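Suppose a colleague, Dr. K., hands you the sequence of a protein chain of 210 amino acids and asks what its three-dimensional shape might be. Before reaching for any lab equipment, you can write down a predicted structure in token form. Begin with the sequence itself:
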Amino acid sequence: MHSLILGKDFSMLKIQHQKKRKEAGCDEAGRGCYAGPVFAAAVILPEDFYHPLLNDSKQVKESNRELLRDFIEKNAVDFAVASLNHEEIDQINILNASFKAMHLAIDQLKTKPGLLLIDGNRFKPYGQIPHLCVVKGDGIYASIAAASILAKTHRDAYMKKLHLQFPQYKWDSNKGYGTADHRKAIAEFGLCEYHRKSFNIVPAQLRIFN
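The predicted structure, expressed as tokens, is then:
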């Protein structure tokens, strides 16, 4: 069987699923956002990797995520981050875009993994490398948690830059998610070029800003 699905919670993050092959943890950030790209990361950690703050990025404070990003990038065996923009998301849908972003991140790894640990319950196979889908894997395996931190922090940094172009949407704080302030801004200003049109966020009569 090419892929398995796990969904069990552990009190501590596991460094490895097995020891025979190098493992790369993979996760994405921004899948549910109204605007901007989806980011994905692939991370291979050393066997002795440990940081007390490491967890699912959604459970970590923003300031600690930045500390973890620096620590992961300095101490990982290998890591890579990739993204797909809003236009490609609209063309191939967000699920396929998430898979493709993960593939692009894996492409960039200089160390070839023998097993991919994927956060979630679905994945498009990457070449001949076997994968393991792990439900809530960013709270189970350290490599997936590390990938979630890198994907999240790289995407947040990108959205903060876009905020300088479109401050009315408050992307510096909501990062493109459908928060109340973001929805209010869309109702007032319409969509901009970085919004995902395929998400059908607002009625068609709202003016699109380019």
